[in-house]
């Protein structure tokens, strides 16, 4: 057609706004929130999801006061191989390894230990990799081992563990 000027359309990727209007940066009516889709306020940008503008709780997770342990005045119960211990048995006890998780595991004694905390954890005894002796670095599930039983704040555990 003669005399009609055709314009070539070029997409502009600047300024995508919450309203879905591509290329209309700052155009009147481009964003229902009144902005151009950038910066603070309005829209669904990243600033709406973090807690910089207020405590919305989206960035809170485990251990940050959001869910589970560690929130408002609650603390995690004591655990681990560094707790103070009191030995329960004078002679070594025999047991079978029921579970091994890489750095710790659980042993079921062949003869149940008579102690007030023995009913805890279905009679299983905690064992840490740091309590293994004789150059052992891991225990095999189903194998027998000998150990002394100790008691700490988290329950019964095995120390001086000798595997077979």
UniProtKB/TrEMBL annotation:
UniProt name for this protein:
Uncharacterized protein
User: Per the record, where are the segments of Basic and acidic residues compositional bias?
Assistant: 52-62
Report biased composition (Gly residues) as residue ranges: 32-45, 63-72
Residue span of region Disordered: 1-94
Query: Which stretches does UniProt call biased (Polar residues)?
Result: 1-10
């Amino acid at each position: 057609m003669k005399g009609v000027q055709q314009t070539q359309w070029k997409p502009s990727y600047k300024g995508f706004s919450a309203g879905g209007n591509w290329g209309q940066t700052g155009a009147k009516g481009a964003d229902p929130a009144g902005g151009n889709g950038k910066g603070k306020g309005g829209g669904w940008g990243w600033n709406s999801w973090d807690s910089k503008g207020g405590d919305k709780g989206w960035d809170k997770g485990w251990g940050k006061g959001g869910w589970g342990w560690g929130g408002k005045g609650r603390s995690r119960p004591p655990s681990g191989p560094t707790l103070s211990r009191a030995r329960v048995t004078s002679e070594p006890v025999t047991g079978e390894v029921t579970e091994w998780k890489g750095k710790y595991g659980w042993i079921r004694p062949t003869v149940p230990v008579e102690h007030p905390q023995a009913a805890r954890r279905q009679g299983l005894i905690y064992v840490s990799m740091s309590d293994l002796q004789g150059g052992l670095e891991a225990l095999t599930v189903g194998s027998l081992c000998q150990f002394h039983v100790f008691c700490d704040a988290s329950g019964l555990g095995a120390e001086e563990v000798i595997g077979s």
